[in-house]
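Workshop exercise sheet. Pairs work together: one partner reads the sequence aloud, the other fills in the structure field after running the prediction. Swap roles for the next sheet.
Pair: D.N. / O.F.
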Amino acid sequence: MLMTIRPPATPGKSSAKQRRKYSMSRRRKDRGDNPENIFDELSNTNAGPSKDSMGSASAFANAAYGSRDDNPFGAVQRSSYRASQLPIDEIYPDPAQPRRVIPSSLRQYWNGQPQNLPDLFAYWLEEIRLERGGQTLDIDAILEGEPTEFSQLDPDSNELPAIEKRFGVRELAMIKIAELAASIRRDGLTNPITVAQHGRLYVIETGERRWLAYHMLRWRLGHMGDQDWAMIPARVVDAVDIWRQATENNARDDLNAVARTRQLALLLMDVHGIEQFRPLDMFETEQRFYAQVSDGNRYSARGHTQNLLNAMGLRSSTQLRQYRQLLRLPNIVWMLADDLDWAQNFIAKNILSKAKDERDEIRLAVKLAKSQGYSVSALTDYEHLLDDDAQTSQPKNQGTKFDHWRQKGLKALKKDLARMSVDDRHTLIADIRALLNELE
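Structure field:
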């Protein structure tokens, strides 16, 4: 059974294309990744390579990541490629890339096709508007170079974590893409993306945010001036090299715990022979794909520890074990930790060390997420677990009947709103606002 979601039109940018319906399988709703197999889509597209050149997702996995190397960093050191201009619509993101640019709560509404990114951006902006209590994020002002509260911060300042908490998950992710797009518009792209070629199409090894920035520029500015932003500088490599990918990812210090755990899982799969593992599209959730190497006895790091530490930017084998432990997290906890950029020690201290079982891990994670302002429909199915806290922390008969009615009514209303389509939600909110005005 398919669920159809209609993305709302962006003010002033409404078009038939932006009103295209989203379709996704319920089976992949909570996956936190593209709901369709991108590589099957690549095989079937008219512009794509033949089935022989791309094949199934399993064939892609073997081809995309190449063969193992006794010295995995040798390929990183000896590779040198010249950048060329490539069409952005012939480039696809790597679904196994550890660093996620699009929040998990939004990836499920995109089918992975570059041509549909304007629809995703429009839906994304509408979710931000709801996240901000009805205030629209002026994306065009950012692209024009107007500073935001986030952009004016010194990245080395202690204020950065505090300021990030004042932004919603989806808003901050889009601001980072928009500010990069503004920089590219002003100064050009100084660091080309890296892609692996498959037939006439390409898969991103590094540079997904830069690629998204080009799509954003074309979406908002492609109809203006001489620059249509349809081509991006890219270095073409023979295959996606997860060791080179890890080196670039970990050169930056903003990888969260889940991103690092994905990276470790891919590296472990590589040293044990990636061909023996089931491909990503065979799993209900992306977390279960990476969890294939959660058993440290079966998939030991012995003999590869130093290479893994170097690639991960870690110092000890204890840290490798700590990150491997996260592969056993429930999927909803995995998704929340990723979207909210939780660090490994934060997860260990606030969830793993306190939880009695998996249900308790989910309860603690949902409670933490709500305390950080995370409010999406993904939490609806788990909010009842918070009643456990209410029953143990509040004395009986506390509060008035009105308090009880108000809390129960608001909770039910919020739950109903989360389940509605965007159009129905807007209609009901407008009706409620009119009623409140009348009562006042």
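Discussion prompt: Confidence is low (pLDDT under 50) at residues 1-64, 73-78, 152-164, 392-396. What would you look at next?
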